[in-house]
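STRUCTURE:
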């Protein structure tokens, strides 16, 4: 199964494949999820929820319930300001409708 290794602060460390141990050896690890080809470090843990979402992010951070995109303050400062696209389509249609009703009132009134 797909999994993401996170550090103690919740930041993505590595994408891994993981499996549940069921070797019956009696060493206490049966039922434990372990990564393949990766050695877990102290403080690291595995997250299997919404792995695809985390992989689509540049700097994913696990908040304990879901993934969030994190950006360093210097990256945020270098981004251009949000684009103002003006009124929404709905707002524009409402304005046109109001203008037509006003013209109709002038014509028939």
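SEQUENCE:
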């Amino acid at each position: 199964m797909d999994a993401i290794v996170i550090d103690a602060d919740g930041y993505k460390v590595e994408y891994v494949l993981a499996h549940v141990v069921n070797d019956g050896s009696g060493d206490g690890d049966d039922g434990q999820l372990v990564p393949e080809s990766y050695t877990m470090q102290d403080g690291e843990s595995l997250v299997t929820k919404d792995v695809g979402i985390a992989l689509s992010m540049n700097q994913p951070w696990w908040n304990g319930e879901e993934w969030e995109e994190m950006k360093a303050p210097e990256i945020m400062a270098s981004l251009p300001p949000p684009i103002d696209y003006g009124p929404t389509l709905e707002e524009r249609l409402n304005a046109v409708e109001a203008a037509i009703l006003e013209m109709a009132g002038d014509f028939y009134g």
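REMARK: The longest strand covers residues 12-20.
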